[in-house]
Write a structure and sequence with these properties.
By secondary structure, the chain is α/β, with parallel strands linked by helices. The protein folds into 4 domains: about 15-245, Rossmann fold, CATH 3.40.50; about 260-320, no CATH class; about 325-405, no CATH class; about 425-564, 3-Layer(aba) Sandwich (Trna Endonuclease, Chain: A, domain 1), CATH 3.40.1350. It contains 22 helices and 16 strands. The chain has helices spanning about 15-20, 30-35, 50-60, 90, 115-130, 140-150, 160, 165-175, 190-195, 200-215, 260-270, 280-285, 300-310, 325-335, 340-350, 370-380, 405-425, 430-435, 440-450, 460-470, 520-530, 535-540; strands at about 40-45, 100-105, 180-185, 220-230, 245, 260, 290, 295, 355, 385-390, 395-400, 480, 495, 505-510, 545-555, 555-564. The strands form 4 sheets. It has a 5-stranded parallel β-sheet with strand order 2-3-4-1-5, with helices on both faces. A 5-stranded mixed β-sheet has the order 12-13-14-15-16. A hairpin with a 6-residue loop joins strand 13 and strand 14 (about 505-510). Helix 14 packs across helix 17.
Length: about 575
């Protein structure tokens, strides 16, 4: 039995503590919230970086929770042994003192506006139901009680919901004689979904009304914490919200509270007796830079540790890539022009690109420029900051791929796109050229196709090998053997016809760094085919025509040579 179970997907702080799951202590964020006197803070982090669990922890600390029998719930024991308990009385005096409104907007990920809006109304009504106790006694007038009950009953009156969270905070302040803390999770999920589903403007109007009344014109607000993946521009949702403090991945404040630090990962690995795998974990899941703090992807680390406990020989896997769609990378790859293809190749090869920062964008603007797409990838965790500079009132970020896990997402997306491109092409001219030994035609077709592709695997022979396998996979009446033993070695490609009167084709691939080295590379390829006698088996089987092809690649070019 494990010393402590691993809480995969646990987003409720009380559940985490009640069941003794391993918890990476982030409670000092409470101290920082009070130190900075945050009034309305928007925290943007990539998905699966612990935002929901953190909000649940904040609620558990601050909330004056009322039980069904009307008594006050004592949540103090949930913080026994936590770092916040050592922060001092000036912080602990806030424990259990405030009514809290806590709501997630992720239920609005629905196929049409009516359904999304309906699910948001239900979420609001659920929070009203949690605070139903305010209907007892004389804190509210009869008219206010009727309005409260109408929301509980999900009455179909749009005016009830446009400022529903503000009205709830007014009711709670009246009852508790205390200002209200408001926690809003996944605020941008309804907006992203609405953009891709085609009802963006309707959703923006509703969210804007809900947020403005809640976060700006609300005298009952103690403070608010809003979380999401992307900072949506003030012109769309936060119009007029000039009191909103933004804490993005560029800021130093609160940088260690979303994601795991090096020290936290090492402690977790040691706890589960996986200390020898620190370097592997670092290569796969580290690399994010929030402010000046380097952090790991917490979702992936939790999954990695869980797999390692169950099987000490388990390989690292791209856990984060399976949590939701990676459509934005697919969009970038599919629409890439020559410049973007070069930049993608540079990134996948471990290099960097530099782009100006656009923190405030709307979903409608994401596809208006490649810079916006790169920014979206950065703020959602698909790129990390290596460095930044300031020039002419603009911040420029040097960005790179964070780790092996995210690199896998890029490579996999590029490979899927390449496969779909290949399947849609007619390569009959290429196949005809191979049979007729028309090396100029074969060379030109391969060059044209190379210029349309995006290279990965650092542009080495592995990429070119996969490229040729894809291009030749549609060759009719042939079976392709890849890196199979023939003669005294393993030719890169061995094309065997089903009809013995047709030629066998042996292909050896070379890659070089300079264009003027390609001719020599082809010669070496042909010599290798002969010296290792790759065609021996084909001759023994009675094939009469054997075509030896040496193909040498350099970047987006190639040279083809053939010997019969």
């Amino acid at each position: 039995m494990l010393k402590r179970p691993i809480g995969i997907g646990i987003e409720n702080y009380k559940e985490m503590i009640d069941n003794s799951y391993y918890y990476v202590d982030k409670t000092l964020m409470i101290k920082e919230l009070l130190d900075y006197r945050v009034k309305a803070g928007l925290f943007t982090r990539p998905r699966r970086f612990g935002k929901t669990l953190t909000l649940s922890m904040i609620r558990t600390f601050f909330e004056k929770e009322i039980a069904a029998d009307g008594g006050v719930v004592d949540n103090r024991h949930y913080f026994d042994g936590m770092k916040i308990m050592e922060a001092g009385d000036e912080y602990l005096q806030h424990m259990g003192c405030y009514p809290v409104i806590s709501m997630s907007l992720k239920s609005a990920k629905q196929p049409d506006y009516y359904l999304a809006y309906t699910l948001l109304r239900r979420q609001i009504a659920r929070e009203y139901d949690r605070h139903r106790y305010v209907l007892q006694g004389n804190a509210l007038s009869e008219m206010e009680k009727q309005r409260y009950q109408a929301i509980l009953d999900l009455e179909d009156d749009k005016s009830l919901y446009a400022d529903a969270l503000k009205f709830l905070s007014e009711c709670l302040k009246r009852y508790h004689d205390s200002n209200v803390i408001i926690l809003l999770d996944e605020y941008d999920v309804p907006l992203e979904n609405a953009f891709f589903r085609g009802f963006y403007e309707q959703m923006v109007d509703f969210i804007r009304s809900l947020f403005e009344s809640t976060l700006k014109t609300n005298d009952c607000l103690q403070f608010a914490v809003v979380t999401g993946c992307l900072r949506i521009s003030r012109e769309s949702v936060f119009t007029g919200l000039n009191n909103l403090d933004i804490y993005s991945v560029l800021e130093n404040q609160f940088s260690e509270y979303f994601g795991f630090t090096q020290q936290e990962v090492e402690a977790m690995l040691d706890f589960y007796e996986l200390g020898s795998r620190v370097q592997e974990a670092k290569e796969w899941y580290d690399g994010y830079l929030f402010g000046k703090t380097e952090v790991y992807n917490p979702w992936s680390i939790i999954k990695y540790v869980s797999a390692g406990v169950g099987n000490p020989d388990a390989f690292p896997r791209p856990y984060w890539s399976n949590t939701s769609s990676n459509g934005i990378i697919r969009e970038l790859v599919e629409k890439a022009d020559g410049g973007v293809k070069d930049e993608l190749e540079e990134l996948v090869a471990g290099g960097t690109i530099e782009k100006p920062v656009h923190e405030e964008i709307t979903y409608g603007e994401i596809y208006k420029s490649q810079d916006n797409l790169w920014n979206f990838l950065f703020f959602t965790g698909y790129l990390k900051m290596a460095s930044q500079r300031f020039e002419k009132n603009k911040i420029y970020l040097t960005m790179t791929i964070p780790n092996e896990e995210v690199k896998y997402i890029y490579e996999n997306t590029i490979e899927e796109w390449f496969d779909s491109q290949i399947k849609g092409r007619d390569f009959s001219d290429l196949y005809q050229g191979l049979m007729r030994q028309e090396v100029d035609k074969v060379q030109n077709i391969l060059r044209q196709q190379l210029r349309k592709t995006i290279s990965y695997y650092d542009g080495g022979e592995a990429f070119y090998h996969g490229f040729l396998v894809g291009v030749l996979s549609g060759l009719p009446d042939y079976r392709i053997r890849s890196n199979r033993e023939q003669g005294d070695g393993r030719p890169d490609l061995f094309l065997m016809p089903y009809d013995e009167t047709r030629p066998v084709i042996v292909i050896e691939i070379k890659s070089v760094e300079k264009l003027n080295q390609m001719e020599e590379g082809c010669k070496r390829a042909l010599e290798q085919i002969k010296n290792l006698d790759y065609a021996a088996e084909a001759r023994e089987e009675g094939y009469e025509i054997i075509l030896n092809y040496g193909i040498c690649f350099c970047k987006k070019s190639c040279v083809v040579k053939v010997e019969v």
